[in-house]
Amino acid sequence: xxxxxxxxxxxxxxxxxxxxxxxxxxxxxxxxxxxxxxxxxxxxxxxxxxxxxxxxxxxxxxxxxxxxxxxxxxxxxxxxxxxxxxxxxxxxxxxxxxxxxxxxxxxxxxxxxxxxxxxxxxxxxxxxxxxxxxxxxxxxxxxxxxxxxxxxxxxxxxxxxxxxxxxxxxxxxxxxxxxxxxxxxxxxxxxxxxxxxxxxxxxxxxxxxxxxxxxxxxxxxxxx
Length: 224
Fold this sequence. Notes:
Layout: H1 15-21, H2 24-46, H3 58-80, E1 86-91, E2 97-102, E3 108-114, H4 126-134, E4 152-159, E5 167-173, E6 178-183, E7 189-192, E8 195-198, H5 209-223
Parallel strand pairs: 3-4
Antiparallel strand pairs: 1-2, 2-3, 4-5, 5-6, 7-8
Helix pairs in contact: 1-5, 2-3
């Protein structure tokens, strides 16, 4: 009997498009990088020998530390060849660097943000708004005829203030909400030694055959 599950998404129209853009290997690498970042920061915050933290200050720096750690381990996965993307650092108007990942053909850009809920896009910011407006996705129909650039813009979000990430989302952002998103942390697959493995835990949110078929195709193709 096959595994049946669903991802938590706003709309069903683009779920497979998101899943096909980021294959199971890339999604697994993202999950492992973010989980590692949370674990490392968690240990750092409770380390009694940590000279940089005093008393209850850990909770005030935890979010910033996780953001830095997530970027670090995502880059590590890219450089190890586990995450099949390229990366660079862009800068805000105030000179703050932020990570941008993109594919070999530069058909999309992906930025990373920590948010309080899987349902939320990253907080409004000039650099993100510019990307949303410039890279309106070809996965949707827009009334604005002036939008001719077909490059897609995705956000990878995670959160929040927990020992392990409560959610890890890849989505296509609008200015204030998702056009569509997938919580990849709910996937019943992971990579072990280069192989796609089914987990024993199934997300108890009902069946979604399209999502199951997408992931199953990747498992089957890997077995051939």
